[in-house]
Design a protein that fits this description.
The chain contains eleven helices and ten strands. By secondary structure, it is an alpha/beta fold. The chain has two domains: 150 residues, Rossmann fold (3-Layer(aba) Sandwich), CATH 3.40.50; 111 residues, Rossmann fold, CATH 3.40.50.1860. The longest helix has 17 residues. It is globular, with a radius of gyration of 18 Å. The mean pLDDT is 94.
């Protein structure tokens, strides 16, 4: 394990969705460097088996460790659900996912004890949010709803499109009927269409963005371990981006949601790891 506070943080996702987590880390930990990997050749993860997700996640973790990162954020709900425990047991490096931090906030914020979770088929099928929330409070009612089309709509850039509103209304009607008052955005793409989801659900429903909560959890973890970067080092650009395919397409999407333009995204052969 690297014990150098100036070392970068590793962040990985099945594709571009984890950029919402990287964005929150940039905002809340501005002195930190980041190495981001998007597995754009093998996206989506939500429809793949647990064994496959664990294999992919091991490969990416090996790559990030080769980049000499001091900690890793699994910025993918499906990989957090299926692979986080395996990664923690196999690698000697601090690793966190994106599920627990958001669930803790949801359990704290709900007033009527009915919490909704939206995510990919893999994440919802794993029922990991439900299990974790029930470990906090068994009396909580947790209603999961898979919303797979949200990923495609977000990546298409249809963030405020009538089609996205129609799809959201259809997906979310079941949760509205259940009278939830708190909704966990259980996929890293979903914060990109947060305003559409909020409009459909109405003012009475609190939306929980695990990307933001995970950045805060990371800050506490690094602080506790003495690994928090206290000031930014003088370098041209503290963020590096890698993908397994479609580097130019990834870069274009990243430049549309990050607070700056990234000059280069490097494609690597992740199957070597």
């Amino acid at each position: 394990m690297i014990k150098d506070a100036s070392a970068p943080i590793g962040v990985f996702d099945s594709g571009v969705g984890g950029l919402t987590v990287a964005r929150e880390i940039m905002r809340n930990l501005p002195s930190e460097k980041i190495v981001y990997f998007g597995d754009t050749a093998r996206v989506p993860y939500g429809s793949k088996s647990k064994d496959t997700i664990i294999r992919f996640s091991r490969q990416i973790t090996r790559f990030l460790i080769e980049q000499k990162v001091k900690a890793i954020v699994v910025a993918c709900n499906t990989a957090s659900a299926f692979a986080l425990d395996a990664l923690k047991s196999e690698f000697d490096i601090p690793i966190i996912g994106v599920i627990e931090a958001g669930a803790l906030v949801a359990a704290k914020e709900t007033r009527n004890r009915r919490i909704g979770v939206i995510g990919t088929e893999g994440t919802i099928g794993s029922r990991i949010h439900e299990r974790f929330l029930h470990s906090i409070d068994p009396s909580l009612e947790v209603i999961g709803k898979a919303c797979p089309l949200f990923v495609s709509l977000a990546e298409e850039g249809w963030l405020h499109d009538p089609v996205t509103t129609l799809v959201a209304a259809r997906y979310l009607e079941e949760l509205k009927q259940k009278d939830i008052d708190t909704l966990i955005l259980g996929c890293t793409h979903y914060p990109l269409i947060r305003s559409t989801i909020a409009g459909v659900m109405g003012e009475g429903v609190r939306l929980v963005n695990p990307a933001y909560e995970t950045a805060l959890e990371l800050k506490v973890l690094l602080g506790d371990m003495g690994l928090l970067a206290l000031k930014a080092e003088a370098e041209d650009f503290p963020y590096r981006f890698f993908v397994s395919d479609l580097a130019e397409k990834f870069k274009a999407f990243a430049n549309s949601i990050l607070p700056f333009d990234i000059a280069m995204t490097q494609k690597i052969d992740i199957e070597k790891y």
